[in-house]
Amino acid sequence: MAKRGEEASYISYDEAVRIILSQRWTQIDSEEVAVSDAIGKISVTDVYCGKNVPEYNRSAVDGYATRSEITENASESKPVKIWSQSRGTGEQKPVIPVSTGDTLPENTDSVIMFEDTVQVGSDIFALRSVRPWENISLKGEDLRNDSVIIKAGSRIDPENLAAAFACRISRIRVYRDIILAVLSTGDEIVSGKVPNYTQPLILSYFSMPFLRTVDAGVVGDTEEDITDRIIRTLETCNVLVVTGGSGPGKHDLVREILGSMGIPLFQGIKIKPGRTVSAFNVGGKLVLSVSGLPVAAIVSVEALLWPFLEIMIGYRKRRVFVMAKVEGTVNADPGIRSYVKVKLKFSDQGYVCSPLRVSGSGILSTLLESSGTLTIEEGTEGINNGETVKVELNGVK
């Protein structure tokens, strides 16, 4: 546990983010890839359609392309003849069979569906009237030349992929995968006395198509082993998270080692759980020293990683919130930004959230049982029973 003097040196969450944003970091490289390989990646720039979609006026149904005025007043009780084989072609308006997607024939302005017509002998009758441009997909009505189909910094999803193909775009510039390495430290883990479950939790929790997580292994509490592993890991990753050794204990060497290798940005921030997190700029790469306890580790990494990715590649984490009434009272420490795991249930009055009342930063049950997270800002003294709050849902990537 942090000592009182050390806690006094902790900075606010907003100040921690400001410091990270002010640093010079090694830029993330980009590459041009085939559209089919871009799914899940982050686009470097806005991608414009560059053409009209559809590229021409086309039929949206199977039917007869014709002039709308010749169907005027048509109904099932009073069909209107729109084509007669006995008349010459030049004596009547065009009635041309088309399939869905066909180019609209010249001198037509609508399509009447086959099921809205009836053929008697060689004559065709309309059973309903159609308006001008009815059943027509007009040129550029879906996407235009200047339509942005992928925004810079956004993740490329299946709908973006479909739009790119529709616009006949073959290649897209994306950021190369960001590599997040996770190194665990601690004699107790190396010996097997304590199972190493925080490391696989972080690796799986943050794994995304554009964010590749890498297991950097486990080392004991010796300066030589920790230093050597950090140096080797930083050669191949963009961000390094080191679990264990983040506090002021006798065997907690990580902060001291990282401080000698790079620029210490801060040591401890006013968040709960995860307040012992420290950040360093080592050769232009972000290194986070976090608690070896699972909940504290996840909270602290998440609190700092997403702002970092926003400045590096423009990506903003997708978040889904619901409004819920609090069942019970939630106390908050003055000046501390608290992340409270809650369990949601639905009632006749809407969502109700129950804070999971546990102590400590290593309680796995809070992750197993929670539906979302309630964030209590620094200036809030607590949440009263029945108060409506905003809960961020778990599992959104």
Commentary on this structure:
- Helix 5 packs parallel to helix 8.
- Helices cover 21% and strands 30% of the residues.
- The chain folds into four domains: 4-29 and 176-313, MoaB/Mog-like domain (Molybdenum Cofactor Biosythetic Enzyme, Chain A), CATH 3.40.980.10; 31-53 and 140-174, Molybdopterin biosynthesis moea protein, domain 2 (Alpha-Beta Complex), CATH 3.90.105; 58-137, Molybdopterin biosynthesis moeA protein, domain 3, CATH 2.170.190; 321-393, Beta-clip.
- It is built from nine helices and 26 strands.
- The chain has 397 residues and is an alpha+beta fold.
- Strands 14-13-15-19-18-16 form a six-stranded mixed beta sheet, sandwiched between helices. The protein has a five-stranded mixed beta barrel with strand order 20-23-22-24-26.
- The radius of gyration is 31 Å and the shape is elongated.
- The longest helix is centred in the last third of the chain and has 20 residues, at 294-313.
- Mean pLDDT is 92; it is low at 1-5.
- 36% of the residues are buried.
Summarize the structure.
The chain is α+β, with helices and mostly antiparallel strands and 397 residues long.
- What strand line-up does the widest sheet have? 14-13-15-19-18-16
Which regions are unreliable across 5 or more consecutive residues at pLDDT < 50?
1-5
Number of helices: 9
Look at the helices and sheets and give the structural class.
alpha+beta
CATH superfamily of the largest domain: MoaB/Mog-like domain
- CATH level-1 class of the largest domain: Alpha Beta
Percent helix: 10-25%
In CATH, the topology of the largest domain is named Molybdenum Cofactor Biosythetic Enzyme, Chain A
Query: How many distinct domains?
Result: 4
For the CA atoms, what is the radius of gyration?
31 Å
Tell me which CATH architecture of the largest domain applies here. 3-Layer(aba) Sandwich
Shape: elongated
Alpha carbon gap, first and last residue: 32 Å
- Biggest sheet details: 6 strands, mixed
